[in-house]
Write a structure and sequence with these properties.
The structure holds 2 protein chains of 2 kinds. Chain A is α+β, with helices and mostly antiparallel strands. Chain A has helices at about 15-20, 25-55, 105, 155-205, 210-240, 275-290, 305-335, 340-350, 355-380, 395-420, 420-430, 435-465, 465-470, 500-510, 515-550; strands spanning about 60-65, 70-80, 95-100, 110-115, 120-125, 130-135, 140-150, 150-155, 245-250, 255-260, 265, 295, 300. Chain A folds into 3 domains: about 60-80 and about 90-140, Protein of unknown function (DUF3247) (SH3 type barrels); about 150-275, no CATH class; about 305-550, MetI-like (MetI-like fold, Orthogonal Bundle). Chain A contains 15 helices and 13 strands. In chain A, α2 (about 25-55) crosses α15 and α10 (about 395-420) packs across α12 (about 435-465). The longest helix of chain A is centred in the N-terminal third of the chain and has 50 residues, at about 155-205. Chain A is flat, with a radius of gyration of 32 Å. Chain B is an alpha/beta fold. Chain B has a domain at about 1-10 and about 35-135 and about 205-285: P-loop containing nucleotide triphosphate hydrolases (Rossmann fold), CATH 3.40.50.300. Chain B has a 6-stranded mixed β-sheet, sandwiched between helices. In chain B, strands 2-1-4-5 form a 4-stranded antiparallel β-sheet, with helices on one face. In chain B, β7 (about 205-210), α8 (about 220-230) and β8 (about 235-240) form a beta-alpha-beta unit. Classes of the chains: A alpha+beta, B alpha/beta.
Chain lengths: ~550, ~290
C-alpha cells in the first residue's frame, strides 16, 4: 500500500478535507440559499399582508384630553418612538402617537401627532360615532340630534342612532338611484347624442348639409334632449326628497350638520363586539374591490383599476399568444436552418432584454401616432381634431405589452417544440399525413403545456409593468370602463385604470399622504392576488393538459 | 418454403373489412384462399445508391421483393439495412443532405417520380419503427389516426376500423374495455402492437418493419412474430432484424447486407443452410457481426 503514489497529495488532508469531500457543506449551502430566498419572499409577502389587511379593521375611537385642555377624538393610527439624539444614556424613551381625527372640513388636516406625556386623560366613550362620508373623509364625534324636513326627529346618541338606522336604508336607496340615473341613463343619453353629433358632422364633411338623413338625425337629437329633460326633472325630484340630516358635535366645540345622503357608513366601534367587527371588516373588504374610488383615489374602492388590469391582461394574451406560437412554429419547423434563422432567434432573445419604457416610447410613436392617427383620418374624420384612436387607450397599451412579452412566448414554445420527440413526427408522416396535418394533429397538442408556460410567464411580466402603460393609455381616474352596455360594447379607444399605476398614484402622487398610505399596501396585496389567480388558472389548465398528454418519453 | 410452412401458426380468420382506402395500386390476387399468389414482385429495386453528404451508405442495390411474403433483411450494425428500408417509403427525404439515384418501383409505380404525391405513397407503404412511438392520445385515437387522415369521419366507420385493426394486431382482447385510456399506459409489447395496428388501419399494401422486436422481451417478441405470420396473407412485409434466428423463423426470403451492399438475396432456407457467398457464411456462422 505504501508503494502506491499518493493520489490525494494535491487534495486537502485531514478532517477538513474529508468534510469538504463528503459533500455536506455544499448541501447546506444550497439549502441555505433556498431558505434565504424563501425568507425574503415570505418577508415581503408578510409585510404587505400585515400592512394591507389591517387597514379595514375598525379600531376603537379614543378621546384624549391633553395637558393644555384640548380634546381630541379619533382613531389611533400609529405609534413611534421620538428620536432623542444627544440625550444621555439612561433617559427613558419617549413616544408619540398619530391620531386620525378626520373632520377635514372642520380642522383642516386629518391627522395629528400627540406626544405621550402630553396626554392627561384617555377614554373610550361608547357614544363616539365614526361616519364614513362621500366627501371630506371621516367624521368623528357624538350625535346631537337628527333632523328631518326641518324639524327635530330624535336627540341624543341612542335615539339618534335608532333614527339614523331607520332612515339610512331609504336614503341609501335614493342615493343609489340618483347615481344610477346620472351615470347610466344620462350617460347613455350623452353617448347617443355624441354619436349623432359625429354622424351629422360626417355627413357635413361629405358635402350634404340638408336632406332626409340629417332631418332624421336632428329629430333623434330632439327626442334625446326631451328624455334628458325628463331625467333631469326626476333627479331634481329625488334630490328634493333627501331632507334628513344629522347634527354631530365634534371635539373642540365644533358641530357639523351632515345630510344623510353623504353617509357611506356609520358605526359605533367602541360598542361593537368581535363578531360585529369581523362583519364590518368583511363588508369593507368587499366594498374595496367592488366600488369606485373617491376623494382623489385615497378612499373608496379600486374596482375600475381591477377591471382595467384584467381586461388589459386578457387582451394582451389574445394578441401575444397566437403570434408567438405561430412565429415559434415557423422558426423551428419550416424555416431552413441558416444564418437568417439564427439572426432572427438572437434578435428575439435580445428583445426580451429591452427596457420596458422603450416599448412605451415605441407604442406612442408607432401605435398611437402612426397607426392611431391613420385610423382617425380614415374612419373618424368627423371627430378631429379631437383624437379617437390617435391617443392613448387600452388597445394600444395592450398591444405594447403584447410586443414586450412576445419573446417570452416564442422562446417557451420553441423549447416545447424541441422537446417533442422525433419519433412522434415520423410516425405521423409514415402514415401518410402531410407536414401540416402532423403539426396540427400531433405536434400542437403535445406542445400545449409549453405554450401555457409561455403564457404564464407573459402574464406575470405584463401584469406588473407600469412604465410603458403610463404613456400609452393609463389614467388616474377614468370616467367610464372600457366595456359597457353601449354599442359596440368594447370601447378599445378609452383610457383605463390599472392597479400598478394606482399604487404609484396613491402612494406618491396623492395630496393626502397619511390617508393614502394604508391603501398602497392593500392595493399591492390585491395586485399580487390577481396575478396569482391568473397564474394558478393557467397552471391548472396546464396540469390537466399534461395529464392528458403524458410525455411520450415514458 | 417448408421452413415457413412448419412454423406457420393457425391462420387468423379476419372479419370483413369496411372499404376504407381509395383504388389500390395493383389488384390483390388470391389473398383470401390461403394459397400463395402465383409469383409477382411487389417492390422492384434497381441500382439504388444513396449518399449522405459525401458518405455513401447504399451501393447499387438490386432486389425484387415478392408479394405476400415476408422478406427479412439481415446484416451487422451500420450496414445500411434500415437506410434501405426507409428508401422504400421515402422517409429518407426528411434528411436534407441525402442524394438518391436508381429506381424503386412499388407495384410498378416509380416512387421517386417527382410527380408522385409522397403522402399517397406512405398511405400504401406503411412503417413500424424500432422504438414504439404511439401518439400521446388514447388507444382509440391512435388506431383511428390514419383513417381520419384519409377522411373517414363517421363514428360507426371509425369504430369498425379501429376494432378490425386492433383484432388483426392481436391487441383487441387486452384493450377493448379501455379504448379511451392513454396509449402511453400500455406495456412495451402492447405499444408496439398498437403501432402495428395503427399502421394496418389504413390497409397499406406493403408493411415495412424496422427491427420491431429489438426493444421487447421474448414473450412479446413471440406474439409479434405470430402476428407477422398472420399478416403475411394480406400484406407484403419487409422486416429488418439483427436477430438471425428471428429471420430464420419468420421470413420466406432473406437479404444479407454488408457495408452498404446487398451481398446475397435468396429464399430463407437457402441462405441459412447453403449460402453462396463466403461473407454470408461468415456472418451466419457468427464469425463477425
Amino acid at each position: 500500500m505504501s508503494a502506491l503514489p499518493s493520489f490525494r497529495s494535491g487534495a486537502r488532508k485531514g478532517a477538513l478535507g474529508r468534510l469538504w469531500r463528503s459533500g455536506d457543506p455544499f448541501i447546506w449551502l444550497t439549502g441555505g440559499a433556498l431558505a434565504g430566498c424563501l425568507i425574503m419572499v415570505g418577508g415581503l409577502v408578510l409585510l404587505i399582508l400585515v400592512n394591507g389587511l389591517g387597514v379595514f379593521w375598525p379600531t376603537d375611537v379614543v378621546r384624549l384630553t391633553l395637558q393644555d385642555g384640548r380634546v381630541i377624538i379619533g382613531q389611533v393610527a400609529q405609534r413611534e418612538a421620538i428620536p432623542q439624539p444627544g440625550a444621555p444614556a439612561g433617559t427613558p424613551p419617549k413616544s408619540r402617537i398619530k391620531i386620525k381625527q378626520g373632520n377635514r372640513d372642520l380642522y383642516g388636516n386629518d391627522f395629528v401627532w400627540v406626544d405621550d406625556d402630553q396626554v392627561a386623560n384617555r377614554e373610550r366613550p361608547p357614544e363616539a360615532i365614526v361616519i364614513e362620508r362621500r366627501e371630506w373623509g371621516n367624521l368623528y364625534g357624538v350625535i346631537v340630534e337628527v333632523r328631518d324636513g326641518g324639524r327635530v326627529a330624535a336627540t341624543g346618541p341612542r335615539e339618534g342612532w335608532d333614527a339614523l338606522q331607520a332612515r339610512l336604508p331609504q336614503t341609501a336607496r335614493i342615493s343609489r338611484e340618483i347615481l344610477r340615473i346620472e351615470k347610466k341613463d344620462i350617460g347613455d343619453i350623452n353617448y347617443a347624442q355624441d354619436r349623432i353629433r359625429l354622424r351629422v358632422k360626417r355627413l357635413e364633411l361629405e358635402g350634404s348639409t340638408a336632406g332626409p338623413q340629417i332631418e332624421r338625425l336632428r329629430q333623434e337629437q330632439a327626442a334625446l334632449q326631451a328624455r334628458y329633460q325628463e331625467k333631469e326633472a326626476a333627479l331634481a325630484e329625488l334630490r328634493r326628497s333627501l331632507t334628513a340630516s344629522v347634527v354631530v358635535s365634534a371635539a373642540g366645540d365644533k358641530a357639523k350638520d351632515l345630510s344623510l345622503a353623504q353617509i357611506e357608513r356609520a358605526y359605533y366601534p367602541n360598542t361593537m363586539g368581535v363578531g360585529g367587527k369581523v362583519a364590518f371588516y368583511l363588508a369593507s373588504l368587499w366594498d374595496f374591490v367592488s366600488e369606485d374610488p373617491r376623494e382623489s383615489n385615497t378612499e373608496g374602492g379600486v374596482f375600475p383599476a381591477i377591471f382595467g388590469t384584467v381586461m388589459m391582461v386578457i387582451l394582451m394574451s389574445i394578441v401575444a399568444t397566437p403570434f408567438g406560437v405561430v412565429a415559434a412554429f415557423y422558426l423551428r419547423e419550416y424555416a431552413r436552418p441558416g444564418t437568417f434563422v439564427s439572426a432572427v432567434r438572437i434578435a428575439v432573445n435580445n428583445l426580451a432584454g429591452v427596457p420596458s419604457i422603450v416599448f412605451g416610447v415605441f407604442g406612442i410613436g408607432f401605435f398611437i401616432y402612426v397607426v392611431g392617427g391613420g385610423i382617425d383620418r380614415l374612419f373618424f374624420p368627423e371627430a378631429l381634431p379631437s383624437p379617437t384612436f390617435g391617443t392613448g387607450g387600452i388597445l394600444w397599451a395592450s398591444l405594447t405589452l403584447a410586443l414586450m412579452t412576445l419573446p417570452v412566448v416564442i422562446v417557451a414554445t420553441e423549447e416545447g417544440l424541441a422537446a417533442v420527440p422525433r419519433g412522434m413526427r415520423e410516425a405521423s408522416l409514415a402514415l401518410g399525413a402531410t407536414k401540416f396535418e402532423t403539426t396540427w394533429r400531433v405536434v400542437l397538442p403535445a406542445v400545449m403545456p409549453a405554450i401555457l408556460t409561455g403564457l404564464i410567464l407573459a402574464i406575470s411580466r405584463a401584469a406588473g409593468e407600469v412604465a410603458p402603460l403610463m404613456i400609452t393609455g393609463v389614467v388616474k381616474l377614468a370616467p367610464a370602463l372600457p366595456f359597457d352596455g353601449n354599442w359596440p360594447f368594447f370601447h378599445l379607444e378609452r383610457k383605463f385604470m390599472h392597479l400598478g399605476f394606482h399604487i404609484y398614484d396613491v402612494g406618491f402622487q396623492s395630496p393626502n399622504v397619511d390617508a393614502s398610505r394604508p391603501m398602497v399596501f392593500t392595493t399591492t396585496l390585491l395586485l399580487l392576488l390577481i396575478v396569482l389567480l391568473l397564474n394558478f388558472t393557467a397552471i391548472a389548465i396546464r396540469n390537466r393538459l399534461r395529464k392528458k398528454y403524458v410525455s411520450a418519453a415514458a | 418454403m417448408e421452413l415457413a410452412a412448419s412454423e406457420r401458426a393457425a391462420p387468423f380468420t379476419l372479419p370483413a373489412r369496411p372499404a376504407v382506402r381509395p383504388k389500390a395500386i395493383v389488384e390483390q390476387a388470391d389473398s383470401t384462399t390461403g394459397e400463395p399468389a402465383p409469383g409477382g414482385t411487389m417492390v422492384e429495386v434497381r441500382a439504388l445508391t444513396l449518399a449522405y453528404a459525401e458518405k455513401v451508405a447504399l451501393k447499387d442495390i438490386n432486389m425484387d421483393i415478392p408479394r405476400h411474403r415476408v422478406t427479412a433483411l439481415i446484416g451487422p450494425s451500420g450496414c445500411g439495412k434500415s437506410t434501405f428500408l426507409r428508401c422504400l417509403n421515402r422517409m429518407n427525404d426528411l434528411i436534407d443532405t441525402v442524394r438518391i439515384t436508381g429506381s424503386v418501383k412499388v407495384g410498378g409505380v416509380d416512387i421517386y417520380d417527382p410527380a408522385l404525391d409522397v403522402n399517397e405513397l406512405r398511405k400504401r407503404v406503411g412503417m413500424v419503427f424500432q422504438k414504439s412511438n404511439p401518439f400521446p392520445k388514447s388507444i382509440y385515437e391512435n388506431a383511428a389516426y390514419g383513417p381520419r387522415i384519409l377522411g373517414v369521419r363517421a363514428k360507426e366507420a371509425l369504430d369498425g376500423i379501429v376494432e378490425r385493426s386492433l383484432k388483426d394486431a392481436a391487441l383487441w382482447d387486452e384493450v377493448h374495455d379501455r379504448l379511451h385510456d392513454s396509449a402511453l399506459g400500455l406495456s412495451g409489447g402492447q405499444q408496439q402492437r398498437l403501432c402495428i395496428a395503427r399502421a394496418i388501419a389504413v390497409e397499406p399494401e406493403v408493411l415495412l418493419m424496422d427491427e420491431p422486436c429489438s426493444a421487447l422481451d421474448p414473450i412479446a417478441t413471440g406474439k409479434i412474430e405470430e402476428l407477422i405470420h398472420a399478416l403475411k396473407e394480406q400484406y407484403t412485409i419487409v422486416i429488418v432484424t439483427h436477430n438471425m434466428q428471428q429471420a430464420a423463423r419468420v421470413s420466406d426470403f432473406t437479404g444479407f447486407f454488408l457495408l452498404g451492399e446487398l451481398v446475397e438475396f435468396d429464399e430463407t432456407p437457402g441462405i441459412f443452410t447453403t449460402p453462396k457467398d463466403h461473407r454470408t457464411e461468415a456472418y451466419i456462422t457468427g464469425r463477425f457481426g
